[in-house]
Amino acid sequence: MFRVRRADTALDGLADMWTQAPSAFRAEITKATDQIDQQLERDPVGSSESRPHGRRILFQSPLAIVFRIESDGQTVNVLRVWSIRRGARP
Q1: Alpha-carbon distance 57 to 48, whole Å?
Q2: CB-based burial label for 28 (10 Å; 0-12, 13-18, 19+)
Q3: Does domain 3-83 have CATH number 3.30.1050.10?
């Protein structure tokens, strides 16, 4: 099982997105965040795609994240979070 951490920039982006979203979209963001955490804790490689510089990307509608697995092999660090829904606020 992996530990999930979030960089301050990812936390700030997620908080901004959530506070600016209508309530229905907030529920979707919360659900997607929970699903992302579960996927990252269980199998971060199997549920994501590789990217340059040791980073990976994962899509869980309506969100996408970029993360990396730290050198300890047990920690996933979420670097960036954004909405993949058209017209959604960042």
Answers
A1: 5
A2: middle
A3: no
Total-model pTM? 0.89
Per-residue pLDDT of the chain in tens (90 residues, 90 and over written 9): 999 999 999 999 999 999 999 999 999 999 999 999 999 999 999 989 999 999 999 999 999 999 999 999 999 999 999 999 765 544
DSSP string covering the chain:
--EEEE-HHHHHHHHHHHHHS-HHHHHHHHHHHHHHHHHHHH-TTTTSEE-GGGEEEEEETTEEEEEEE-TTSSEEEEEEEEE-STT---
